[in-house]
Amino acid sequence: MSYAIVVRRLASLCCPLLLVPLVLLVVSCDNDRSRVDMEKVVPEIGGNQSINALPPLHIAVAAMISPETTRQYYEELLRLVAGRMERRAVFWQRRTYAEVNDLVMNRQVDAAFVCAGPYVKGHERFGMELLAVPVVHGAKVYYSYIIANRNSSYASLHDLRGKKFAFTDPDSNTGCLVPTYMLAKRGETPKSFFREHFFSNSHDNSIKAVADGQADGAAVDSLIWEFMNTIDPTLTSHTKIIEKSSPYGMPPIVVHPAMDAASKKRLKQILLTLHEHKDSAALLAKLQIDRFAEGDDKAYDTVREMSSWLEQKKGD
């Protein structure tokens, strides 16, 4: 079965959102076209005159999964949230996590779904502010999974020495920072440890790379791997988890600290009460999200500690 068919099947089974963050953020099957569409075009959700007369609510989604699939997963959620604010949703997407952070910093968007790593960088750089975090199966944490092909003999990260490895994005917590930290603790770097390594630009592309034998191993977001494994294990069934990291603060929804206070308060209230309404509760259930909850900046201290330790290591 081709990957395009798998993506269509995923889209038919689910509604938008955090396909995480989740599953909520592969380069698409047509990589060049994806870059043009996502960097030059800002499509709007909704088409009739009454909707277009409403003030816009600009929301960005980090590319944790492929561009087309991200839009499919998020569109319904963004439309619902914007509608409850009596605004129209405008969907923004960029190829890298850093580009999404720039959108928030420059106040080109009102809110964004980002990864834990970019949140830490944005908070340090310009005070990026937590608005809410998803609660999945009762937890506000997620993990980095080190995966390998199911038919391989690899049983831990140690077994991937001299092999080909897939990272996701240079700013990804689970897809880059965590495995780099794991190696550094063993006195290694990706360059010294792996024969070859590359960036896939998204977690589902890394899963595909391992499933198809394009990579011997990869580091991926546990939320995305588990979600895909539940709804359609076509790809994940060809992989296995050989190592699991410590828990980290959940990928959050963020805003610029200077966002209008009333709008910020209203958006947060809507997110925190989505599970209380029948229509949005059903949507969240399909996405395996219990609800959205208050975030705590301290939950990301472990990410900061890893980053700080690695920076100090470079200077030694």
Using only C-alpha atoms, the radius of gyration works out to 19 Å
The CATH architecture of the largest domain is 3-Layer(aba) Sandwich
* Tally of helical segments: 13
Globally, the shape reads: globular
CATH topology of the largest domain: D-Maltodextrin-Binding Protein, domain 2
Number of strands: 13
**Mean pLDDT across residues:** 84
Keywords: Signal
Pfam families: Phosphonate-bd (PF12974)
InterPro entries: PhnD
Protein name: Phosphate/phosphite/phosphonate ABC transporter substrate-binding protein
Can you tell me about this structure?
The chain is α/β, with parallel strands linked by helices and 316 residues long. It has 2 domains: 3-140 and 250-308, 3-Layer(aba) Sandwich (D-Maltodextrin-Binding Protein, domain 2); 142-248, 3-Layer(aba) Sandwich (D-Maltodextrin-Binding Protein, domain 2), CATH 3.40.190.10. The protein is 42% helix and 18% strand. It has 13 helices and 13 strands. The protein has helices spanning 3-13, 31-40, 49-52, 67-84, 97-105, 116-126, 173-184, 190-193, 203-211, 222-231, 261-272, 278-286, 301-315, and strands at residues 56-61, 88-93, 111-113, 129-135, 141-142, 144-149, 164-167, 196-199, 217-221, 239-244, 248-249, 253-255, 291-293. The strands form 3 sheets. Strands 2-1-3-12-4-13 form a 6-stranded mixed sheet, with helices on both faces. Helix 5 runs parallel beside helix 6 (116-126) and helix 7 (173-184) crosses helix 13. It is globular. The chain starts with a helix and ends with a helix. 50% of the residues are buried. It comes from Geobacter benzoatilyticus. Belongs to the phosphate/phosphite/phosphonate binding protein family. This is Phosphate/phosphite/phosphonate ABC transporter substrate-binding protein. Keywords: Signal. InterPro entries: PhnD (IPR005770).
